[in-house]
Design goal:
It is built from 5 helices and 4 strands. Helix 1 (3-27) runs antiparallel to helix 3 and helix 1 (3-27) packs across helix 4 (111-121). The protein starts with a helix and ends with a strand. The model is unreliable at 132-136 and 149-177 (pLDDT under 50). The protein is elongated and about 50 Å long. It has one domain (3-127, 137-174). With 177 residues, it is mostly helical.
Length: 177
């Protein structure tokens, strides 16, 4: 994995997923009996006009991207997370097939700069789905094995309803199902 591949994957799986997921939850709260807080937000969001929804989606995007950007600033060492004059160094390494790559090498382009550039030039993308099927990953499979027959429906929620997300200078709808 190269640094650009990492930054692209990180964007899709974090800030983009947060925007799509939050918009989907606002449009249709998850679960058979959504939490009251989620239902209230959904009702409020549903009453908004198109331009107001686009503004809310743009604010969600800004918040999600800022959170990831700020985290990358910490990983790059340009934002401190500890007090004192002497600070530790964080290293993010990708290891695969016996090879290691330092992704936040201070001698190269910083992760937060690469991420910021990518955010400025690309619209949010829906997160890629894993090839693993629902309940086939180990923790989910273990939980499912302990369910009783009446529990089955409690944990099934829509994976990816259709949601609207705000893009660069325009609104767009994306079917992420």
């Amino acid at each position: 994995m190269t640094k650009p591949e990492f930054v692209q994957a990180l964007k899709i799986q974090t800030s983009d997923a947060a925007v799509f997921g939050t918009a989907a939850n606002l449009e249709r709260p998850p679960g058979r009996r959504p939490r009251e807080h989620d239902a209230v937000l959904s009702q409020w969001y549903g009453k908004l006009g198109i331009s107001d929804r686009e503004a809310v989606n743009a604010a969600m995007r800004e918040a999600a991207e800022l959170a990831v950007f700020s985290f990358l600033c910490v990983l790059d060492g340009v934002s401190a997370i500890e007090d004192g004059l002497v600070k530790g160094e964080l290293r993010l390494t990708h290891a695969k097939d016996g090879e290691e790559l330092l992704l936040n090498d201070p001698a190269e382009e910083l992760l937060h700069d690469a991420y910021n550039a990518l955010c400025r030039t690309s619209d949010p993308l829906p997160p890629k789905r894993s090839e693993a099927r629902l309940y086939e990953v180990s923790p989910a499979r273990q939980l499912r094995s302990t369910q009783t027959s009446g529990d089955r429906d409690m944990y099934l929620t829509p994976l990816a309803p259709t949601c609207s997300v705000w893009g660069h200078g325009r609104g767009f709808s994306e079917d992420i199902a």
